[in-house]
Amino acid sequence: MLTGMWTGRKLALTLAFTAVVALAFGVSCRGFFVQPVLTAISVGPTGQNVGVGDTLQMSARGTYDTQNPQNITGQVLWSSDNDAVATVSKGGLVTGVSAPGTANISASLDTLTDSAAVTVVLTGVTKITISPQTVNVVQGGTQPFTCAATVTGQSQPVDITASVAWTTSDTTNTNITNSVTPAVFTVNSGTADEQVTITATYTVGTTTFTNTATVSVVQSN
Question: Which of 72, 42, 70, 73 shows the shortest CA–CA distance to 57?
Fold first, then answer.
């Protein structure tokens, strides 16, 4: 009877010792099994265009302090800062609602947030037109420009001034603003009688539309 009790106690002690050793080993190797800490979120893709009624799948990747980046698209809280332009589902699927316009799509988890801009573009565009087409601007002066798109099925052109990419042929002496309406062209120190070309570029899917206007720099009085 005593032998059996001793054997049982010995077995219990052995099991307890084994558990302690295993715990110590786990602690030494994994630091008390500390949960990885999320240190950053990255949202993509960035700078994408989507048509009205079309969709775009966004993704979110999390960077942790103790492991490689992970796909956390289904774990984050998705939101759009402009639901009138684009909405986003719980799974990160963006839908274009109204064009032209831009919405910032954000993903948040814990206290971290990242976002990417999505531009909703018109469909059925046949051409774009800058206004005015030709103009004189004095040295040191400014000139507002707008751009409109001709769209199939719409009787009136659609203002896309803030959605096109504006460029100037003389980047040394002149500049033009982007993402505002109207775009403002400025002559800093251009040479009198210089001809500057203003270009507006609008991309819909794989199709790019361009139009140009001419500015004549004239001497100020």
Answer: 73
Instruction: With respect to residue 205, please indicate whether it lies within any of the assigned structural domains.
Output: yes
Q: Is the dihedral of CA 97, 98, 100, 106 positive or negative?
A: negative
Task: Choose one of 80, 106, 121: the last residue of a domain.
Answer: 121
- Does the pTM of the predicted model rise above 0.85? no
| Cα–Cα distances in angstroms (integers) from residue 11 to residues 2, 7, 219, in the given order | 14, 6, 102
Residue 159: partners with Cβ closer than 8 Å, 6 or more residues away: 100, 146, 147, 148, 181
Instruction: Classify residue 83 by its DSSP letter.
Output: T
Angle at 184 between CA 182 and CA 185, to 5 degrees: 140
pLDDT tens per residue, range 166-195? 999 999 999 999 989 999 999 997 677 899
Domain end position, chosen among 87, 121, 155: 121
